[in-house]
């Protein structure tokens, strides 16, 4: 191994050690552990001249900031209309369809924000493949879920993806924390993945 190869090997070992230590400590981080661990790993990678990527259920996420999208004007309009951060809307779109307006899931969800037929109908969306209607309807639906769960974005995102019935409802005996703790690992991963994408677009709020 020459001097250059040895230098890169040393840098990689340094980054990997930091990254692994964060992953080992995830159980103590609570609800935002994955995102925080990944953020710390990225910071370490930046300082050593390397990039670290993490792969989850929704695919790999680049370490660098994400570029503008082709739907920014529609997203901004929906954001202003329903008081949902643009970055969060973009995070949902990236996770749900990868910004493909013609996407159709195996369950029949359609368009950029993957609206189910029944949901689209209830939102008065007549063409779920029309970006303007899809983004407006999907953002309105997400805004309603955020309100339903008292501002808890993690629960709202999970309900967006799996349906409110799979998440449950807040009550005198069930807090947001109780509902979150009752979710499956896959459901939590989805919410964390969307929030990670949203942070790439500038999202700074927590749950």
Summarize the SSE layout with pairings.
Layout: H1 3-24, H2 33-48, E1 54-56, E2 59-61, H3 72-82, H4 86-97, H5 117-122, H6 131-148, H7 153-162, H8 164-167, H9 176-181, H10 185-200
Antiparallel strand pairs: 1-2
Molecular structure report:
By secondary structure, this protein is mainly α. The chain is built from ten helices and two strands; from the N terminus they run H-H-E-E-H-H-H-H-H-H-H-H. It has helices spanning 3-24, 33-48, 72-82, 86-97, 117-122, 131-148, 153-162, 164-167, 176-181, 185-200; strands at 54-56, 59-61. Strands 1-2 form a two-stranded antiparallel sheet. The termini are far apart.
The biggest beta sheet is recorded as: 2 strands, antiparallel
Instruction: Supply the number of helical segments.
Output: 10
* SS-derived structural category: mainly alpha
Order of helices and strands: HHEEHHHHHHHH
Which residues form runs of ≥5 with pLDDT under 50?
18-64
Integer-rounded radius of gyration: 19 Å
General form = globular
Mean pLDDT: 79
Order of strands, main sheet, comes to 1-2
Helix content: 55-70%
The separation of the N and C termini measures 47 Å
- Percentage beta strand: under 5%
Number of strand elements: 2
